[in-house]
Amino acid sequence: MSGNNRNVDNLPWVEKYRPNKLDEVYGQNEVVSTVRRFVSEGKLPHLLFYGPPGTGKTSTIVALAREIYGNNYSNMVLELNASDDRGIDVVRNQIKEFASTRQIFSKGFKLIILDEADAMTNAAQNALRRIIEKYTKNTRFCILANYAHKLTPALLSRCTRFRFQPLPIESMRQRIDNVIVKEKVKISEDALNATLKLSKGDMRKVLNVIQACQAGQNSNENEIDEELVYECIGTPKPNDIKMILNSIMNEDWNTAYFTMERIKVTQGLALVDLIEGIVEVLEGYELKNEETRISILSRLGDIEYSISHGGNERVQSSAVIGVIKSSFEYEMV
Ligand SMILES: Nc1ncnc2c1ncn2[C@@H]1O[C@H](COP(=O)(O)OP(=O)(O)O)[C@@H](O)[C@H]1O
Ligand SMILES: [Mg+2]
What we know:
alpha/beta, Rossmann fold, Helicase, Ruva Protein, domain 3, Zinc Finger, Delta Prime, domain 3, 3 domains, disordered N terminus, binds adenosine-5'-diphosphate, binds magnesium ion, DNA replication, ATP-binding, DNA binding, nucleus, Rep_factorC_C
């Protein structure tokens, strides 16, 4: 490996643009101001950050720890990943070793960050609860998880909980605008809006998609357009979905089937992607009869389930056409 490979320029953007300070965490103002207050009052409790991926849980606690410890970070903070398959015993030993070494040069709490804690078994969580109790005197824990309901009540009750919301579009916009300038990205307004919408509040996804689009351009002079964004994300374009729906409703079976196949093949999509796209486009349709929507949605749900259980793609494609054709008969009455 040449020295250049470790250059910061080659890092994935999610690493390169990870917030270094709490001020660089966007769209989670309440969480940020509350934990800051805990710290300034010297009353940091054990914390639980939970919520969907890419909303800043890891970034927030790491930035907070940097603010608290500065240069002493590596002595005072232990970052562990609970989904590590080495199990709770390894975690326990690492925690024990870290928490029980004396702090010679600094006072105050040590911090243990336990990422992906919802991947732990109940037994491991119970063990963790006992560890937390044992070391509470000089250590604070911050537990990170996607789902709070996967954590045991005993663990939950020992932490102050913060839910991380999917990031609002405006917050993601502020953050990505910054990156776009720094990386000299050329992207159309439509393409950027599509990225923000399709990422559904996941900032990691926004960064990854735009970096992938940028890398896919053969010249930095080309502008990233909406088309490319949809390709990178692997989501059908709304216009393609509308074309499929029109074909199913207005043309004969074979034509509809071939329209659908053509779009699947040329866009590299799977049938489940199309189903998701159809559900989304249908949300915006005005229908005379609400029965139509109910019928389509519930039957598409069944088809999606069948596909995930290994249903034959050709048969299921036909079923999609059948569902839509027959459901739209409600519109005729
Ligand atoms: N609230 C946020 N403000 C700024 N950047 C964010 C935010 N949330 C996520 N990011 C970006 O997305 C990447 C992943 O964030 P991370 O904190 O690891 O999310 P989580 O732990 O919630 O999955 C980070 O590198 C950062 O660049
Ligand atoms: Mg994380």
